[in-house]
Amino acid sequence: MPFFSIITINRNHRFGLKSTANSILSQTHQDYEWLIIDGASTDGTTEDLENYPEARIISEPDAGIYDAMNKGIHHAIGDYIIFMNAGDQFADSRVLETIFDRLQSFCSSPPDLIYGDSWESGHYKPARSAKTILWGMFTHHQSILYRRSALAILRYSLEYKIAADYDLTFRFLKIHPTTLYIPRPICIFETGGVSQQHVKRGRMEQYLSRSNNKACSRIINGLILFLQTLMWNLRSRIPRFYWIIRQLLRSGTKR
């Protein structure tokens, strides 16, 4: 049984899949399985799939990103699951090796969720503590690993089109709060995806997730939504200042 299950979701991102494949296949730690869940792409991707004999491949129509992710979970057999979707990459070739080495000290009680930092648009993006999940995703989804046995029957809710990753992570941490922070970047996040094309909807779906999970009062929920909107406007209008704040957060983070 492989230690890691790397799940790559793809639909019509042929060249992004190639860069992701290079990143995965260059990992120095080889105890992993790679699953490609392709949504019946029409851009030539299906012609390339035969170039990845290392992967288990499912190529068929689906009901969107999170339906494809649920398929990946269903077929995964590794101890830990990480999603590295087409266009995203591991931060370097030793990411899995580093995580595996850190886990060797957890003999009887391994962490249920592992997370680290990210690179985005050439900027180092530090993770917040997982305990701050109420305030939004604490790192990129591609920098989170879930223990497969802890996921059990939890799946991404198709009720959310943008924020189902937030919703699942929130529900997961309510049940399994044992986490391990890896103080290094896990992924290089590809910008311009669906979450960044529909930022407002994503914030509202997070609001609905907190409400549906009875996570906080309406006042606190509204305050979180306001602050998320404020930070996104800052990023959009004064990106340099935004990234300075992120770097200050990194230097001031204590875990």
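The record above closes out task 2.4. Task 2.5 opens with a second protein, given below.
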Amino acid sequence: MKKLIFSLLFLVGFAPLHAQLSLDIESGLAFQGYNEVRIPNESSATKFDLNKDFDLQGPVIPLRIRVGYTFAERNHISLLYAPLGIDYQGPAPFDIYYQGTLFARGEEIDGYYKFNSYRITYRRSLITSERWRLGLGFTAKIRDARIKLGTDGVSAKKDDLGFVPLLNIYTAYKFENWRIFLKGDGLAGGPGRAFDFFLGGRIPLTKNLAMKAGYRILEGGADVEEVYNFTVIHFVDIGVIWQL
């Protein structure tokens, strides 16, 4: 027991000497793929696609802010704030029954899709060679989602606030003065799935500042009693990473 206590105290005291703070800010352009919806998930409701059946109101400019903390060289903790909102507009191509409300064919519809994400991630580096890095971990995600349809006289919406456990992966290969990497969260099983992965490159600008650019895909959804919704969104992103 004494050895365990001593070890924990040693780690707590030792970690700050090798700790590193980071701030990762990312933006760019988002492009909607499918966004299929049926709420409630039963025969009385209409299945429709927000992106294919209506016109996306753009451009959609995402924002992601991640604060990271690395300690004892191989351990990484991060907090992510990633809000996302997409607006749609256009006449209903057919009668849509949504949340017990009828939106008749031809009615001008204003649609809104929100998918805000709040995450805390722990990852441990398993490989840290001169060229290669590989890390695995887990992410606790809180999703704050909303799907809303409305006209001048009536509106209906579905909010969904929930917890999603995900696996986290990071792998990178270093060239002379830049690095290519793949990182993200994902898990599939049961009635749903969730994937959020970024593939890109990172190049240093100064000792503490680097720039990154690449492609991100956000895909997933759920097929449960109350909700059927599956969506995919493609991102072309650019960002900066500051490390201390």
